[in-house]
Amino acid sequence: MTRPGPQPLQSAKSESVPRHPSPDRPLSQIKVLTIAQLVKGEPWLLEQLHVRNHHILLWTTRGQGRVLLHGLRRGFGPHNALFIPAGKLLAFELGLQVQGQAILIPDDGRVTLPDRTQHLRLTDGLSQAEMTGILDDMRRELHEDRPFVAEALNAQAHLMSIALRRQIQSIGPLPPAKAAERLVRRFCDLLALEFRSGQSMAAYADQLDITPTHLTRVCRQCAGLTAADMLSQMVQHEARALLIHTEKPINEIAASLGFGSAAYFTRFSQQHFGHAPSQIRKQAQGDRPRI
Fold first, then answer.
1. Pick from 270, 260, 272: which is nearest to 231 by CA?
2. What pLDDT was estimated at residue 6?
3. Could you tell me if 148 and 52 lie in one domain?
4. By the 8 A CB rule, do 225 and 231 touch?
5. Is 157 in the same domain as 51?
6. Which segments cross the bilayer (predicted)?
7. How far apart are CA 100 and CA 166, in angstroms?
8. What is the mean pLDDT of residues 48-70?
9. Which residues span the domain enclosing 278?
10. Could you give the angle at which helices 227-245 and 277-284 cross, rounded to 10 degrees?
11. 171, 192, 211: which is the final residue of a domain?
12. What is the per-residue pLDDT across 71-126, written as a single tens digit (0 to 9) for each?
C-alpha cells in the first residue's frame, strides 16, 4: 500500500541539548562523540534518512553495515571514514557490532572541508593510527576542559581535514558518475531543501524533467528505496526530532512539515510511529533534556 505523504499547505515553516543538536538551531561548537553517544538509545537518529545543518565525520573502528550517502547506498566496514557536508542526505545503518566515533563541525567556515560526501577506506596502519589519534586528542581536550579548548579543537579539526583531503588526493580522480547516480543526487539536493514543503512526488519529478515512475526506478536502483520512501523518511526523522527534542507546539510542527492539518499529521504519526504526536512527546518527557 502506498504511504501517504504530507499534504500541501496554503501557507506555512534553545541552545542545543548535550547529545546532539536541536533540529531548530545550528551547532555552535565542535563536538566529538562515540557513535553510541551520538544516538544515545535512539538509533533512528542515524538510521533514518535525514539532513544535518552541520558537517559530520563518522570514523568506524569495528563492525560493518550499509550507509546511504547523498542518495547512493554502499557497504562499510572497520577503518572507514565517512564525511557528510552540511545539507547532504545521510542514513547510517547500525549493526550490533558497529563502533566508532563522530566529529560534528559547525557549518561556519572555520574548517576547510570537502564539499561532497566522501567514503574512504583507510587500509594502511599509519593512516588508521593518524585518524584515531586525532579523534583521541580531541576527546581528551573536551574531557579535560583545559584553557583554550576551543582553539585546540579547531586546530585538531584542521589536522583531521588535512588527513581526510590527503586520503582523497591519494585515491585520484573517481570515474564519472552514471546518469542514474547524477539524477538521484539532484533529487537528494531537492529533498534537502524542500522536503518540508508538502509537495507531491510528481512535483519533484517535474523539477527534474522526468516522470515519477522513472524517478522511483532510479532511486530504487541507487538508494535501495523508492523516491516516496526517501521523502517519507526525511519527514519522519524531522517530525520525531521536533516532537521529542523541542517544545514546539504540535500544530506548528505539522505546519512546518507541510501537512494540511494537525489531524493529517496525527494520522501520519500513527501510521509510521504507532502513536499520536502527543503520545510520542509524553513518552519522551522525564527521560530526555527539553529545549
1. 272
2. 43
3. yes
4. no
5. yes
6. none
7. 21
8. 96
9. 182-284
10. 50
11. 171
12. 999 999 999 999 999 999 999 998 878 999 999 999 999 999 999 999 999 999 99
Residues 155 and 215 in one domain: no
Nearest to 130 by CA among 164, 173, 97, 170: 164
pTM of this structure = 0.86
Q: What is the pLDDT of residues 130-155, one digit of tens each?
A: 999 999 999 999 999 889 999 999 99
